[in-house]
UniProtKB/TrEMBL annotation:
Database matches in PANTHER family: TWO-COMPONENT RESPONSE REGULATOR (PTHR43228), TWO-COMPONENT RESPONSE REGULATOR ARR22 (PTHR43228:SF1)
Response regulatory domain ranges (all copies): 4-120
SMART domains associated with the record: REC
The protein's name: Two-component system chemotaxis response regulator CheY
Classification via SUPFAM superfamilies: CheY-like (SSF52172)
4-aspartylphosphate, modified sites: 53
Keywords: Phosphoprotein
Length: 125
């Protein structure tokens, strides 16, 4: 069975780029434009991985992540923040509230591959 990844970003361009990379890595990809929609999707089917933007309308990345991790099954997905926020405070906040990894935009397939491998979702080879 293939692994699933939810890409949460308010930019359609970013979601498309991430989808292309993830599909190459044999992930089934779903998309959400904000944290509110992402939570609904997690209620319907919890993904193996979540690529999460920080700044979004309605529910931002940290709000979504706190709500996700508060759910009984919310510790299951590996969450990788994927953002332009490079401030060390932001990175440590992300890890404190439950992110597994953190990558900077713009990203490429090598970075995504490396992070998915680090969180144990793909074989590094």
């Amino acid at each position: 069975m293939s692994k699933t990844c939810l890409v949460v970003d308010d930019s359609r361009v970013v979601r498309r780029a991430a989808r292309a990379i993830l599909e190459e890595l044999a992930f089934e990809v779903t998309e959400a434009e904000n944290g509110e929609v992402a939570l609904e999707q997690c209620s319907a089917a919890m993904p193996d991985a979540i690529l999460l933007d920080w700044n979004m309308p309605k529910a931002d990345g940290p709000s979504f992540l706190r709500a996700l991790r508060a759910r009984p099954d919310g510790d299951e997905p590996k969450v990788i923040f994927c953002t332009t926020e490079s401030d060390l405070d932001r990175i440590s906040t992300a890890i404190e509230i439950g992110a597994n990894e953190y990558i900077m935009k713009p990203f490429d397939s090598e970075i995504i591959k490396e992070k998915l491998s680090e969180v144990g979702l793909i074989d590094p080879n």
